[in-house]
Amino acid sequence: MPYRSVLPGVALCLAGLLGCSSASTTSADAATDASVPADVTASFTAMTSVSTLGQNCMPVVAADPLSLRGSITLTNTGTVPIGPVTLSAGLVIRVLGGETMATFAVTPVTLAAVAPGQSGTVAFAKTAGSLTGDAGVAGCEIVPCDSPIRIALRLTGPHLPEGARSFSEPMTMPCTH
């Protein structure tokens, strides 16, 4: 199931509470075409759905055992166009406490510009070998099996606020032993 995106600084959302969405900072009289000034921030929701998630923790464990695929749907709830939107990095976040457990790269994916009142969806995949955790931690210890986690993706593009992210709903890290 998807989960709504949050913006940095929205404390309740970053704490992992459900029902969060982006805060609107859109100028009330902004134009609705590509000529909108760059400093206007759009209002949006972004939902991340994870279709494949797992770790291969068999006797020989790779440095990066995590497999991840999914999609993101961005809905423009404001009055200015958004994008194109680039997904270029991701985080594995602990559900309780909200700390980042690991980072990873995604094959750079671009979602075409989304007009006001419209939605766009694009698939993503984690780049193999890109999972990074705390120093000295490797393999399935980076994101321990059965950990309650959320996946976050960084979103960048015209009219998106700095640090915009989309989160998955809470889930448990499945592993093959």
What number of domains?
1
Reported CATH architecture: Sandwich
- Helical residue percent band: under 10%
Structural class: mainly beta
The amount of beta strand, in percent, is: 35-45%
Total strands: the figure is 9
Give the biggest beta sheet.
5 strands, antiparallel
Q: What's the level 1 CATH class?
A: Mainly Beta
Please count the helical segments.
Answer: 1
Shape: elongated
Order of helices and strands: HEEEEEEEEE
Q: Can you lay out the helices and strands and say which pair or pack?
A:
Layout: H1 11-14, E1 44-56, E2 66-76, E3 85-94, E4 100-111, E5 119-125, E6 148-156, E7 165-167, E8 171-172, E9 175-176
Parallel strand pairs: 1-9
Antiparallel strand pairs: 1-2, 2-5, 3-4, 3-6, 6-7, 6-8
Which tags fit this structure?
177 residues, Immunoglobulin-like, 1 helix, mainly beta, five-stranded antiparallel sheet, four-stranded mixed sheet
